[in-house]
């Protein structure tokens, strides 16, 4: 007979004694359980003791989290959070440098626990740490170096501070300018302990993100230019923290103070890739205002930009008002604006009233005309010398191209929580978007000529150009020169070959015999996909626990047992490099106990956390396993691929249909390959729509041989 669900069997440790095995009744008050444990070891004053997890976290057991205790858990009897906080509060003020260092190290570890953090903060512990940082002087630091590493002392102090503040108990607005100056000073120093620099960057990022007032103070102490040297080192953690600070400054800064500063062609990890992606999105979003601004036909400054385009193209100066009749000048302007490729020849300002791309298109045209003047003049004069129907209209092309580039780069959209899709080439030039436009407008003109297009083919040309650009971007060129080279290879002829090849690989077999063969093969392919999904679940996946600070996220690992009967899972300190063995995963969930798999907004953790619920990207990666009556195991997949693998695998374990997009894609790919393999012998043979007719019966059966 199984034990009651409220009874949990655990082991409890106490220094200097043998561990005790005991049953905990979850219905009893936690204080009563602690009293019982203390009496077992003849310890008095049970109110001064507490239980904590005997793992790497050392988190205290409270009434709120006691239900997380599982059968087989190992707990430790220790001093209560209030007692520990008071002891550490006293120890970090010790006159002995060795004792102070050891106390700060213990404080940094303990501060990860919110229960301890609350007690230490109640003792005004945050103020004590900030005073320790503020009161330090350079002379004092050098004296400290004589007896131990100051870097370690400061590192543990700042680590404890970051961990305590991360719980959101204390407001960031409470810190003095002296403290900010001190932290900024550590960042600005050319030679600083790596751990101290990391913590200082983390503190600056949180200050900027959590308080507009602190942003102003931090911005006075540190500039983006002072952060650039940290990006030029080899430590990717430092680079990641630095980019996080730059992103924070970008988010809070007025638009006129934002600038592009990152140049980094080196291979990078996922977290840094995400930060670079965020910076890329924020940088391109600066274009949104111009993209959504219509041109005012009555604004003389804006009209002067169009005059400048005409002047550069045709090498003419603005004529004085008395030169010729008004009609003659209007006729001359109309002729030139037609050569420039505007739709409205009389008043080209009207071409820029469409949003998007609005004034951004005109900005791009002017940049091209001024910075690539020879190419600009060549394109305009080359097309103006062609027949009307064969000319590539520069004005119209520029407007449509700018709109296409904004759609491609998703200008105006917010950064995704889990995306790492950044383009290194955009960090190699201060005016990367404008240079991107200049390359693409020349590509458009080249493709127009290769297609021998007419004005009726304008939309077809734009589709080909979009295809060329998207295929080149997929290869992630490291520089704008690489982009040019790859676009050069993607000529119109090459695009036709690629499209033809893709069509051949996606032949549509619609005849009845082929359809019947597909139906016969499908169950075999589905079983193959199912086995692949279950094998992937057996390999396991590292999942992230979403927190308010991305870089301090915790990890946990889950994998299916080889016999497909148990899910093994457990917390990890950091993301593993390979598979995690079953022995290291202490928690277990029998597959037989799983009641259902829910996804998206139906997941319990999406309902509980408002911030996550509002994040569309996280919502699309969330799923939960429901078991017993109201228990659940919550997941947030690292990407869409893992989401599909796990939801498919879990549904397969429950005997349900696998319905993910990934399964559909795999089915199409594998089915197509299998069909082609089976039909190889029938190449160039016409398969009839219907089976051949059965011949008539013979007039006699004399030809039948009687074996007897």
Chain-averaged pLDDT: 83
Shape field: flat
Strand order of the largest sheet: 2-1-4-3
Which percent range fits the helix content?
40-55%
Strand tally: 11
**End-to-end Cα distance:** 71 Å
Tell me about the largest β-sheet: 4 strands, mixed
Low-confidence stretches: 137-148, 258-266, 609-614
Measured by DSSP, the beta-strand proportion falls in: 5-15%
Radius of gyration: 34 Å
Oligomeric state of shown chains = single chain
| Total number of helices | 29
Decide which structural class fits the backbone.
alpha+beta
InterPro entries: ARM-like (IPR011989), ARM-type_fold (IPR016024), ELMO_ARM (IPR024574), ELMO_dom (IPR006816), ELMO_domain-containing (IPR050868), PH-like_dom_sf (IPR011993), PH_domain (IPR001849)
Domain ELMO: 301-473
Transmembrane segments: 140-162
GO molecular function, one term: SH3 domain binding
Commentary on this structure:
The protein is of the alpha+beta class and 708 residues long. It is 52% helix and 9% strand. The chain is built from 29 helices and 11 strands. The protein has helices spanning 30-40, 81-91, 97-110, 114-122, 125-135, 138-145, 150-165, 177-188, 194-210, 212-221, 224-231, 236-252, 270-285, 288-291, 300-314, 326-339, 359-371, 373-384, 394-408, 432-451, 458-474, 480-489, 492-505, 512-539, 604-608, 610-614, 616-621, 640-653, 661-678, and strands spanning 7-13, 20-25, 49-53, 74-79, 541-545, 554-560, 566-572, 587-590, 594-599, 622-627, 631-636. The strands form 3 sheets. The protein has a 4-stranded mixed beta sheet with strand order 2-1-4-3. A 4-stranded antiparallel beta sheet has the order 5-6-7-8. A 3-stranded antiparallel beta sheet has the order 9-10-11. A hairpin with a 3-residue loop joins β10 and β11. The chain is flat and about 105 Å long. Residues 137-148, 258-266 and 609-614 have low confidence and may be disordered.
